[in-house]
Write a structure and sequence with these properties.
heterodimer, A: mainly beta, 4-stranded antiparallel beta sheet, 0% helix, 45% strand, globular, B: mainly beta, 7-stranded mixed beta sheet, 11 strands
């Protein structure tokens, strides 16, 4: 199964943009790139997903490298409520299951 | 617009008892997934069900654990003869269709504590 690599933690200041990187050098051509986040004491929350083109939604933007070996989740203005663990997950192998790694713990400072 | 509903939110059982965790998917969703998060660990896939069928149970322990998603009613994750190591947060997710591009929508989990 293709794996993803993310930094263990990142810090950001409130109201500043945040760029969360993810490396997936063994991604296959049919793998979608998904991002979820998990706030304390809650279930994971879907953020965004894409295949080849950059994607935008009300929560975030997803920038996908041209060779698809890496991607970046962009939060345009971090708020305190964005403090969470962010997971980058490849979907496409072995059916519908999501394989969660360690994710990136984002801390937002006021 | 109700999301994925899990109950109970917290469940306490003594060793040897049975635990039943319930999950009602989002309206219109016929695909259900169960994940387990052990203390200080990441989420691990357990089982994937579609109405009345188990599609993939590769992450489910072979003994004491079972899951169902009947034609009517919620999906049930059942743990028989619970042991201390079963203490974890159990999350259910649902999606409307099969496909690797389908987002999964999660409930807030059931936190199971074994005394």
């Amino acid at each position: 199964d293709a794996k993803t690599t993310q930094p263990n933690s990142m810090e950001s200041n409130e109201e500043e943009p945040v760029h969360l990187p993810c490396n997936h050098s063994t991604i296959s051509g049919t793998d979608y790139i998904h991002w979820y986040r998990q706030l304390p004491s809650q279930g994971p929350e879907y953020v965004i997903h894409g295949l080849t083109s950059n994607v935008n939604n009300r929560m975030a933007s997803l920038a996908i490298a041209e060779d698809r070996k890496s991607s970046t989740l962009i939060l345009h203005r971090a708020t305190l409520r964005d403090a969470a663990v962010y997971y980058c997950i490849l979907g496409g192998n072995a059916g519908n299951m999501l394989t969660f790694g360690g994710g990136t713990r984002l801390m937002v400072k006021p | 617009n109700a999301g994925v509903m899990q109950n109970p939110r917290h469940l306490v059982r003594r060793r040897g008892q049975e635990a039943r965790l319930r999950c009602s998917p989002m309206k219109g969703h016929s695909h259900v997934y169960w994940y387990r998060q052990l203390p200080e660990e990441g989420l691990k896939f357990m089982v994937y069900l579609q109405k009345e069928n188990i599609i993939d149970e590769s992450g489910m322990p072979k003994e004491r654990f079972s899951a169902e998603f009947p034609k009517e009613g919620p999906s049930i994750l059942r743990i028989q003869q619970v042991v201390r190591g079963d203490s974890a947060a159990y999350f259910c997710a649902s999606s409307p269709q099969w496909g690797s591009n389908q987002p999964q929508h999660f409930g807030d989990g059931t936190r199971l504590s074994i005394l």
